Amino acid sequence: MNPLKYLAGYPPQLQARVSELIAQGRLGAMLAEKYGQSHAVRSDSQLYDYVQALKDQYLRKSVPLGKVLYDARLQVLKHALGTHTSISRVQGNRLKASREIRIATVFRDAPADFLRMIVVHELAHLKEVEHNKAFYQLCTHIEPDYHQLEFDARLYLTHCEMVRR
Ligand SMILES: [Zn+2]
């Protein structure tokens, strides 16, 4: 398995820098230093409240939320973030946006900023099905640092898989 599968689609120089960090064993420490804050959103009902609060703030007029839950079987690349290059192809056959929000369980133990990033991502899908320009505009409207957070969350997922192996 490609250890940098979460970063496919990012520039090769960037991937090379990440490989270097990994080889030096510094990726985990770098992430821990930058993203030291954890969160207390443990249960599905806490997750629901968390998502609802963000939605109230930024997407009040959008469709009401359906179910909100942590899903241990959800694969982040396949179902959530996409691979960054083939995103619209992968997501294109989704017929309509779902009101149900599933968050991969890996985010339950992730730093607070990454939970926020993935929730922003899924909330944006309430309005935009595909990962198109309007979708990312909505993400950055809710969270101005969205792109950096998505990239760093991909680094975090890369790190998690390496330490689990
Ligand atoms: Zn998506």
From TrEMBL:
It holds the Pfam family YgjP-like. Residues 96-149 form the YgjP-like metallopeptidase domain. InterPro entries: UTP_pyrophosphatase-like, YgjP-like_metallopeptidase. PANTHER family: UNCHARACTERIZED PROTEIN YGJP, UTP PYROPHOSPHATASE. This is M48 family metallopeptidase. It comes from Tahibacter amnicola.
